[in-house]
Amino acid sequence: MLVQLSSQGYQQVLRVMNLKVTNGWTDKSFVELLVLLNEMLPDRNTLPTRNYDAKKILCLMGMEYKRIHAFPNDCILYRKEFEGLKKCLKYGLSRYKEKINSEDKGGLEKYIQFFF
């Protein structure tokens, strides 16, 4: 459940979300940080303890963050007209990591995250 935040509360949520995005934290590690901060702050603090609630607060502020696939040497961002590409146009290398075994999902070589 979202609570009413002061302007300072919105700023705090924005700052911790910026840390998450800048440092590439997983949702799990981010939630662990939120829970830890919540335990350290006074009982009546309004910092969310769930990633979902932090994202909702960003949306209320008119912001959200996007994750964009990128080639490892940053020669291409897979967005707009390049969003459907599977390989880099310049080097012909795959957008995804190669599977090591049949259980491996592959995954992205690199991505960037940003607020907009």
Tell me what you see in this structure.
By secondary structure, this protein is of the alpha+beta class. The protein folds into two domains: 7-63; 64-116, no CATH class. 35% of the residues lie in helices and 11% in strands. The chain has three helices and three strands, in the order αααβββ. The chain has a three-stranded antiparallel beta sheet with strand order 2-1-3. α1 crosses α3 (51-60). The longest helix has 17 residues, at 7-23. The mean pLDDT is 75.
Provide key terms for this protein:
three-stranded antiparallel beta sheet, 2 domains, about 35% helix, single chain, 3 strands, alpha+beta, 3 helices, about 120 residues, about 10% strand
Output mean pLDDT: 75
Structural class: alpha+beta
- The total of beta strands comes to 3
Order of adjacent strands in the largest pleated sheet: 2-1-3
- DSSP summary: helix tally: 3
The N- and C-terminal alpha carbons lie at a distance of 25 Å
Unreliable stretches (pLDDT < 50, length at least 5) are none
User: Beta fraction of the residues?
Assistant: 5-15%
The rough form would be described as: elongated
Write the layout of secondary structure elements.
Elements: H1 7-23, H2 27-40, H3 51-60, E1 65-70, E2 77-78, E3 111-115
Antiparallel strand pairs: 1-2, 1-3
Helix pairs in contact: 1-3
In short:
This protein is an alpha+beta fold and 116 residues long. The protein has two domains: 7-63; 64-116, no CATH class.
